[in-house]
Amino acid sequence: MTENYPHPADGNDLPTRRGLRARTVTDSSAEWWNQPPQGGDGEAFEGRDAAAGDGVDDFEGGNLAGVGAYGVGGGKDAGGFAGAGVSPVESVPVLPPLPAGMPEPARLPEAGRSPDPLRDAYPAGEAEPPASGDWTDETAETTHQPVSRAEARTERSHREGRRASFLDLQPAAIPATKGFRGLLAGLGMRVAPSADELAERRDMRAVSQHWPGPRTVSVVNGKGGANKTPSTVMLAAVFARNGGGPVLAWDNNETRGTLGWRTEQGPHEATVMDLLPQTADLLSPSAQSALLARFVHHQVEDKFDVLRSKPDVLASEQKITAEDFDALHEVASKYFRLNIVDSGNDESAERWLRMIDHTHQLVIATTTVEEHAEAGALLLEALAARGGRYAELARNAVVIVSQSDRNGTDSQARRVADGFGELARAAVTIPYDPALRKGQIRYDSLKPAAQRAWLAAAAAVAEGL
């Protein structure tokens, strides 16, 4: 009796173990498929694997009893063909490649090893099924699924050998508060903030941070009238109003410093010259911060304090040495988290040079006037030429370009700022605002555009602290 077995080219499904992955076997011999079985009529091959005794499906009505998975299997006696006394086959042809889309046959277990249906279905290097438990469709679909932050936090805690927290520490989303989006949010709608509002929040967060130790910011330019004093006042106001804590604006100018004139005066007329003799007492362990109220002038609205110079006397009468500056700076660093120092125009003065030695962040104040910008650039180049820490201060400097002309344009300020691109870390432009021209300076007296610009400038400064 001769029967034709299905050939792959006929498009018929080949027998394979359902649910398992099979290995492809190839050969150029296709005629073997249509050869009559050797050994007469044997058992029908229904779901029996030649080696393992199970697993090959749908071989019905055939005469083959000892060949499983298209190789030499050995029937129930694991030795060859079961049938009418036929000896084992010495060589078995290998099948040609299967057409695309056709399932692949299962492979036989290796010689000398007990068969394992699941293990044999996975070639070396491929993922193996679970070591225990039933193999189900759910098990087969264990792909990477998105996990929540809480699940990820729990998994990370398990890996690190600690208990996962029940607390959700993610900050709550804050809806829009400005513009039309803020209006909608005020009506009860959950509206996300705009990109501009998000940028403003980032700047506010930057200027609100506290650092592990006091910081000193020095505002410099060797040219008078370059907007050093207004820059000092505005930076102090932004940091104090947002970050809280004690912030000091210090007038380190021995030639008619005007910081005291541009800020609010306290209930006294004390200056830096009155504080200098008291530095030893203020540095003693028993000294209290409230004692400083005798020497500094608190700004009620803008929340910072001012240490004034004495502009009504000659420079020779308020000369401060490097040692004096060290003592004053030690007091300021003990009682204030942030010191913003307004400097004079004499870059050779002891107090000016010592100020640079204590500086953490350098700020070049300038206007759109060419002479002011050139003086600031020359100062940065001189510091860079000295090398070491001076060069580092210059590279990390922030340049604040204030529009000096009521009729000036943004492009003028931007051109000056761009000119500092290779000299400093950042350059920020400030629009013209009449509130900065004369008189006492209050943050709330500025227009919103100027307030936003000063917030951005302070955020750039905070990045270097």
Automatic annotation (TrEMBL):
Sequence ranges of Polar residues compositional bias: 25-37
Listed SUPFAM superfamilies: P-loop containing nucleoside triphosphate hydrolases
Annotated coiled-coil segments of the chain: none
Gene3D superfamilies: P-loop containing nucleotide triphosphate hydrolases
Span list, region Disordered: 1-57, 101-163
Biased composition annotated in UniProt, kind: Basic and acidic residues: 150-163
One GO molecular-function entry: ATP hydrolysis activity
GO BP annotations listed: negative regulation of cell division
GO CC field: cytoplasmic side of plasma membrane; cytosol
InterPro entries (UniProt xref): P-loop_NTPase, ParA/MinD_ATPase
PANTHER family reported in the protein's UniProt record: ESX-1 SECRETION-ASSOCIATED PROTEIN ESPI, SEPTUM SITE-DETERMINING PROTEIN MIND HOMOLOG, CHLOROPLASTIC-RELATED
Record-given protein name: ATPase
Organism of derivation: Arthrobacter zhangbolii
